[in-house]
Here is the input.
Amino acid sequence: MTTHLTPIAPRERVATLDVLRGIALCGVMIGNMVLYSGRWTTRGAHSAAPEGTRLDQIAGRFQSIFVDSKAQTLLTFLFGFGFAVQLLRAEARQEPVMGLYLRRLGALFVLGLLHITLLWWGDVTWTYAVAGLGLLAFLRTSNRTRVLAGLALIFVPYLVISIPALGQPLGRLFLEPKAFEAHTVQMAAALHRPDRAGLAWEHLQYALVWCSRIYAWYFFWTLGRFLLGYVAGQLRWFDDDGARHLPMFRRMAAGCGATAVVTTTLGLLDRLGYVPLHTYGTAGRLATAAMYQLGLLAATLTYVAIVVLLMQLPPWRRVLRVLAPVGRMPLTTYFSQSLICTFLFYGWGLGWAGSVGVAGGLGLAVAIFSVEVVLCHLWLRYFRFGPLEWLWRSAVYLKLSPMRVS
Here is the structure.
């Protein structure tokens, strides 16, 4: 049977999803600043902790509590949701979707490799393409199975690596800690070089080195969140911008919000030494790891619920829809963040690496994202898709999509 599947037309888009995606991309910009700016490579594994001036400490705490990993959790949730939407559209038209989905992942993987080699080593799109293959194993399972499998994939591998007797050997399987530190020093030197010679190889190499440190849990963690988004899509959470499920979103905002407050507070007290859970051996480590993952999920679902509820109120809807164009151009926005930031921080550009603190990075991230919001608004006045979205869709659907707004 010939497929007639096409990209979602602008009139079919759900504004709430675009707003959520825009919020997630802002969080990604903020969270990635520690990597863009060279603070990680110049100061080591603890560079994300609050440091420097009092303002840096405040900015660091804000980022840790409200941003770190929540944005990526939201993006992976929305990726899984998009997979469900594809399946539902194909089912409604009695058309196949497997080839379309595999082309989508293949094109995403290639774009990710181009991002790594041409712009920045920290790309996640290629990892989404790899983890996305796992969704195919759950095509014919129930939503209950998907939820249970998703939670298991999120929690179990992360708990396993939190046990030193298991986590340390897994971490050394591909690369010894000293070798990782040596590669980090090498990457730091590459950041400061005044030219781009060899930078593509440095990026590709360090991307693999970085992945060797997190492979034991990251891909499972990502797939688990994909599955939760998949279930939300199957249950059509966001039909009519979520208006059909408002009682559920109210309960979610209250329950998940309370859970996020409790887990975040306990985590903060643990780090400050007032309730040092991590000092209680293996049990303490497991409790800390489980609490961290639970807090991430709870905070992310709280954000989702709050956005859905606010989108039902006309004044708030007008404010939040300002972010929607960014959510319609996620790849272009994400890649442009790398282009801008590598120019600012790398030696071939302005060479700011290592000179911007946590607070400065936060302010810079917000400023860059604000400019992107304006540019996305201007672009979508004349074009249906962002340039990279157009390229991705053309590769997926094996034809050139019309670009200009009719």
